[in-house]
Amino acid sequence: MSLTSGIHCPRTPLRRFLDRELSAGAHLLRKNYRARHHDDQLLLPGPGVGTEAGTVGTAIDYRLRLAFTTVKPVDPVAILGMLHLGTDDAGQIMRAVGKELADRLKETVLRLELDNRDLPVDRDQDEEEDLARLLIAAAWYQVNYRTPIGFAYTPLAITAREDPGAFTLERLLQLPHRDMVADVVAQLYKAADGPLKALRDRSRPEDCTPGPTFSTHHLTADADLAVDGLLLDFKSTRATRTLRQAEAWQLAGYLLLDTEDRYRIDTVGLYLTRSGTFASWPVEEYLELLGACRRDLTVFRAAFTELIEGCTSDDVPQGTEEEDQVRRLLQRLAPVADPGHCKVCTQPCPGSGRRPREFCSSWCRARAQVLQRRGLLPGDPVPLLPAPRKERLDLPGDAEIVSLTARIPR
After folding, report:
1. Average pLDDT of the chain?
2. Cα radius of gyration (the chain)
3. 230-235 and 225-227: which strand pairing?
4. The whole model's pTM is what?
C-alpha cells in the first residue's frame, strides 16, 4: 500500500480525506509557487531518452542525494530489486551482475567523496558520465522492486533474457543511451550552480537522510532527502511552471506520516531539476496555503493515523458495505467548525452586523459547493455512487475487440 497510489485516485479514502482537510486545494500554493519559479534555459531531454524519462529522473534523484550524504552509496530499493529476481538462468545472472554493480557503485561514490563540502557538487565530465551510467543501471533494478511487470520491458531485462551468457556488468553499462547519460549530467551541472548548492554548503552530511521513509503497517512512502528539518522532494518533470495537486498532497502526506517526528520536519520543499527552481515553505505556512482545517500538526496527524488504521486508505472501496464503512469513518473524522467559524476551513469568520457568516471568504463559499457534491461536508446528503461497469460484453463467439474507444457523433 502506498501514499502515491492513494493520492492519484479521487475515490480512495486517503484522497477524500485530504480533499476535505486541505480546504483551499492547491490553488493558493500553486500561485505562491509560480511567484518563485523561473525557467530560464529549461533543460529538455534528448530524443534518445524517449520512454526512459522516469529512469533518468530516478538516476538524477540518486545523484543529488549523494551530493548531500553518501551514507547509503547504493539505494536500498535498488538493492531490493537486485534480490527480487527469478531463479532461472537470466534471473541468476541479473542478480550476479547487480551485485557487481552495487560494489562498483559503492567504490566509485566513496572514491569521489561526493558529499565532501570542501569539494564542488560536480566532478569532471568523464567521471560524471561513468557515474550516470551506474546510477541509470541501478534505477532499472529499482523498477523490478516497484513494478515487476514493467521491469520486463527495461533494456536490462530484455538484454539479459536474450543472451544470459553474454550479460556482464560491462554490457549493462553500455545499455543507457548517450542522451540519457547526457541528461543526467546536465541536470547535475545545473544543480551545481544553483540554490541546491547553497543548501548543501550550509549542511553537514550527518544531518542529511537520503530517501527518508515513512512506513507504517498500513501505508508506505519515501521522499528524496531530509536536511536538518527540511523535507525535500526532487522533480525532473518538464512541466516546471505548474505545481500539481498530487505533488502538494504528497508533501502533506509525508508530513502527516512522520507521526513520531523522526525527521523533525519544520520545512517542506521541492527542487525542480530541469529549471533549477527551489521552493520551500515552513510547515505552518504550507498548511495555511492549503487551507488545512487542523493547523495543529499533532491533531492533524492523529486524525490521519486513525484514517489509515481504520480502512484500506489507498484503495477504492469495493461494494456497498465497504463504501458505507468508509463513509462512516470519514464522517467521524470530519473537522467540526465552532460557532462563528467557516464551515469549510474551520477558521474564524469576519464579524458581521447582520446574521453570522457561514464562510470566511468567497473562495470557501465556492469550495463548499464542490465538497457538498462529493459528500465531504458534515451533514450533507450522501452522493450516489456511479453504477458499476458491466464486466461482460454480449458479443458473438467469433468477434474480435479492436477498440473500446467511445465514438461520439459530431
Report:
1. 88
2. 24
3. antiparallel
4. 0.86
In three-state form (DSSP H/G/I as H, E/B as E, the rest C), the secondary structure along the chain is CEHHHHHHCCCCHHHHHHHHHECCCCHHHHHHHHHHCCCCCCCCCCCCCHHHHHHHHHHHHHHHHHHHCCCCCCCHHHHHHHHCCCCCHHHHHHHHHHHHHHHHHHHHHHHHCCCCCCCCCCCCHHHHHHHHHHHHHHHHHHHHHHCHHHHCCCHHHHHHHHCHHHCCHHHHHHCCCHHHHHHHHHHHHHHHCCHHHHHHHCCCHHHEEECCECCCCCCECECCEEECCEEEEEECCCCCCCCCHHHHHHHHHHHHHCCCCCCCCCEEEEEECCCCEEEEEEHHHHHHHCCECCCCHHHHHHHHHHHHHHCCCCCCCCHHHHHHHHHHHHHHCCCCCCCCECCCCCCECCCCCCCCCCCCCHHHHHHHHHHHHCCCCCCCCCCCCCCCCCCCCCCCCCCCCCCCCCCCCC
Please report how the helices 53-68 and 125-146 are oriented relative to each other, as an axis angle in degrees rounded to 10: 110
Name which of 224, 235, 233, 132 is nearest 177 in CA terms. 132
* Tally of CA atoms within 13 A in the half-sphere of 160 that contains its CB: 28
What's the pLDDT at 353?
61
- Note the pLDDT of residue 140: 97
Q: Please give the pLDDT value at position 342.
A: 87
Residue 235, C-alpha cell as written in the block: 522533480
Q: Is-contact 156 141, C-beta < 8 A?
A: yes
User: Closest by alpha carbon to 82, among 158, 156, 169, 141?
Assistant: 141
What does the alpha-carbon distance between residue 60 and residue 67 come to, in Å, rounded to a whole number? 11
Q: Which residues of the chain have pLDDT under 50?
A: 384-395, 397, 401-410
Residue 43 pLDDT: 92
- Rounded CA-CA distance 91/151 in Å is 12
All three cell numbers of 119, joined, read 569539494
Q: Which three cell numbers stand for residue 233?
A: 522532494
Output the nine-digit C-alpha cell for 29.
500554493
Least Cα distance to 79 among 136, 139, 132 occurs for: 139
Q: Give how far the C-alpha of residue 253 lies from the chain's centroid of Cα atoms, to the nearest Å.
A: 10
Which pLDDT tens digit goes with each residue over 61-70? 999 999 999 9
